[in-house]
Specification:
Layout lengths: L4 E6 L5 H8 L7 E6 L1 H9 L5 E5 L10 E10 L6 E5 L8 E4 L4 H15 L4 E4 L12 E6 H7 L5 E4 H9 L3 E8 L5 H16 L1 H7 L7 H8 L1 E3 L2 H15 L1
Parallel strand pairs: 1-2, 1-3, 6-7, 6-8
Antiparallel strand pairs: 3-10, 4-10, 4-11, 5-8, 5-9
Helix pairs in contact: 1-6, 3-5, 6-7
């Protein structure tokens, strides 16, 4: 039997529709699925421990070879809700920001916004496990994913990075895409995209299995997160990658 193609994906709520088909057994004979958080999936792809990953787009320049193999992605066009700077004080009073250790793209985006949009220069520090509990006073925190949705009810000031990027550029933002580090057979890619689509064809089932207190998951999937790449998103991705090379 041919060797399975190794695929890495993220375990956040925003990826559940994309991987639902795989979880229902789609392509189980052709691929091996690993689940982890974004920075780890990126490292696996860089080190050739996987062949395809749903990775933060900030990792693309570090790959020796890359191919975006799917139109499915994790993006937003304005407010994203789950990638935010949380603070007890207004932006101008923030002295320190704790950075989420799980995503490189969100950290890179925050740095761009601090310099080019908000024009503030607080001290940046790597957050450790449960660092959200240290958000208080003039110490803010960049929090992403499911933990960000939970944090929304706990913090006075919420600065949405998707909204800020849209205000600055007029463009959507692409957080993650399906990227391979080698050519992938077209027949596999076709089935892969069909498996991605399965979750959206059964979105009510995905929503029923992935509830979170205090936030409407249906609106998250249908209003906040954008799952299909388009021309404006490609433009936004190219602009972001240019900025992080500067």
């Amino acid at each position: 039997m041919a060797q399975k193609i190794r695929v890495g994906a993220v375990s956040y709520l925003n990826t559940k529709p994309l991987i639902y088909g795989f979880k229902q057994g789609k392509m189980q004979d052709e691929m091996a699925l690993a689940i982890d958080y974004p920075a780890n999936i990126a490292s696996y792809l860089q080190n050739n421990q996987i062949d395809i990953g749903l990775v933060p787009v900030a990792v693309i320049p570090s790959l020796k070879e890359h191919h975006i193999i799917s139109d499915y992605c994790i993006a937003c066009d304005g407010e994203v809700a789950s990638v935010c700077l949380f603070s007890s004080v207004p932006l101008a009073e923030i002295k320190t920001i704790l950075l989420d250790y799980q995503s490189r793209t969100s950290v890179a985006l925050l740095k761009i916004l601090l310099q080019e949009h908000w024009n503030i220069s607080p001290q940046l520090m790597a957050g450790s496990e449960n660092y959200e509990q240290q958000i208080a006073g003039t110490t803010a925190g960049l929090v992403i994913g499911d933990r960000a949705l939970a944090q929304r009810s706990k913090t006075k000031y919420i600065y949405d990075l998707g909204t800020a990027w849209k205000e600055m550029t007029g463009l959507p933002f692409v957080f993650a895409a399906w990227v391979s580090n080698k050519p992938i057979p077209g027949s596999f890619i076709e089935k892969f995209n069909e498996a991605n689509a399965y979750g959206f064809e059964h979105l009510d089932e995905v929503i029923a299995k992935n509830q979170i207190a205090g936030f409407d998951i249906k609106s998250y999937y249908t209003q906040f997160i954008k799952f299909k790449l388009d021309a404006r998103m490609e433009e936004a991705k190219a602009l972001f990658l240019r900025k992080i090379k500067m």
